[in-house]
Amino acid sequence: MExxxxxxxxxxxxxxNSYVKNVDDLLIYPFAEECVRFLHKMGxxxxxxxxxxxxxxxxxxxxxxxxxxxxxxxEVGIDRVYYCPHYSRGIVRKYSIKCTCRKPATxxxxxxxxxxxxxxxxxxxxxxxxxxxxxxxxxxxxTILVRTGYGTQEEIKDVQPDYICEDLRDAVRVCAGKKEGx
Length: 182
Hints:
Layout: E1 3-7, H1 32-41, E2 44-51, H2 62-76, E3 80-84, H3 107-116, E4 124-127, H4 130-138, E5 142-146, E6 163-165, H5 168-175
Parallel strand pairs: 1-2, 1-4, 2-3, 4-5, 5-6
Helix pairs in contact: 1-5
């Protein structure tokens, strides 16, 4: 069985920038590649799970998102990107549905676990929003809230992360067992 770190994209790997509409607007944190390389050294898969309702809203296409995903794989070393293009009130009919993959649902994690035979008990989720932490809790993962992206402004009320860190660098230290939580 594999172990994995599930990463939200915006606010964790890249800067939070509302709706990133094309590959040029994807501003990857300068430390992201080094963090992913360290996760790999520790034996973790680095898997991005990301809600991308901008597709359903008509802000950008799935093809444009695929270019962004390819950049994460090529430049950062992400093993795989799972995304949810759905939004029940979207304007693009194909994606305007209620689904089981949109966080805080666990569909993207379940798909990754099936594809890679992941051991949930040895895995983490790193996110910057309450919905990320709720997703991790729903999937029985250890959860880490980073204070980048929305993590600087969104108050977590109904669910508590296992760890709170300043950014992805600190979160990776938690995964390595080299930093205490909260």
